[in-house]
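Hey, can you fold this one?
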Amino acid sequence: MTENPDPHELRARLHRLMAARYRLAAAEQDAAAEMVITTKAMKDFVATWNAAVARDIAQHPDLAELNVTLDGYYGPEPNP
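Sure. Predicted structure:
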């Protein structure tokens, strides 16, 4: 025959399970917070990258001339 478990042990086990659920929820919230920071950092990186590329192209005389030449050959970019 199986003995009935001690009710205090059952309560303690229940509290440990609840504590584990709270730790899991806290870890999920930490991960979400890190994703928010990562998203902001990536947006800042892309903005900086695009500004640097635009500046490099504008400063490079051969690329600017090539751009004008291609616009003359292919025509202006179509507007959607």
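The mean pLDDT is 85. Let me know if you want another pass with a different chain boundary.
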